[in-house]
Amino acid sequence: MATQRVLDFLASRRPAGPCLIVDLDVVAENFRAFEKALPQSKIYYAVKANPAPEILRLLARMGSSFDTASVAEIEMALDAGATAERISFGNTIKKERDIARAYELGIRLFAVDCVEEVEKIARAAPGAQVFCRVLTDGEGAEWPLSRKFGCVPTMAVDVLRHAASLGLDAYGVSFHVGSQQTDLSAWDRALGDAKKVFSTLAGEGIVLRMVNMGGGFPTRYLRDVPAAEVYGQAIFEALSKHFGNVIPETIIEPGRGMVGNAGVIKSEVVLISRKADNDNVRWVYLDIGKFGGLAETMDEAIRYPILTERDGDEKGACVLAGPTCDSADVMYEKSPYPLPLSLTIGDEVLIEGTGAYTTTYSAVAFNGFEPLRSYVI
Q: Where does the sequence pass through the membrane (predicted)?
């Protein structure tokens, strides 16, 4: 994950403080892998994963479309060179004035998950295409995304029926199987639910045309994950199983899978201590923690690979924590992290797989620490 380009950058630039370095060559490789794995699906990069302008410009040049969650993200995608027809407003929770602004900017594809949202879009974006998000169980995901977004399939039918009655284009359904999803059957279950919605509405003369299969495609952390082509094959088989020869248009929204393994955070050991003389577990404090960009260590959901220059030495369990004056700023305690016993104050560590959901999760100035710096190479 720490490519030679990243290592050379760190050696030559020696940036002070914690920072993220993203290798654009890896992002490009990931985009090509998704294109190859699912050649019939349109790729809508999830901008929220990492909205660095350099990443957005690269993906726009390569032909990517963009999944956005706000007007600000829509404007970022437009500034990067994407045209409005390559942008979806994928957040199911939108202010009506933001819907109107997106419509003014040319956006015509919107996500919904309730009739109330449909009514806002009918007023602010007449004639727009809408797709309804269906709830999934998120089983198999390291970062589940159920409950807050989506509705049960029977309600999705009602939502899309209402959309059509208000003059909107009932375009299709969407789902998200959960971030860092490693269960290949998750897409099969979700596509089965999507087919039920398609079939019910077809019986009423409302013909849906698109399935947005969301994100969930993982990046490698401490455990190996299936390659993009393995996911592609499993998804194609599930589509064929449920839709037969009449496969609808499909969209995928990779975020973590597009940029996660392209990024490495450089950090420094600030302190190593114990809580008692007979304590066998060290506390290792880094100059970055949950509030500095590692929010996904919440509940120890994501366990990042950590490299040190002493990795050949004997290792021992430690509690890994951040530098802020907040007791929640502890990354790994329930399952202590093995780090070299020879690790010492001032040592640099590399936290791999951090290209997604780090800079945007970083606090603005909690405890006076500056937001996570980012370098895109």
A: none
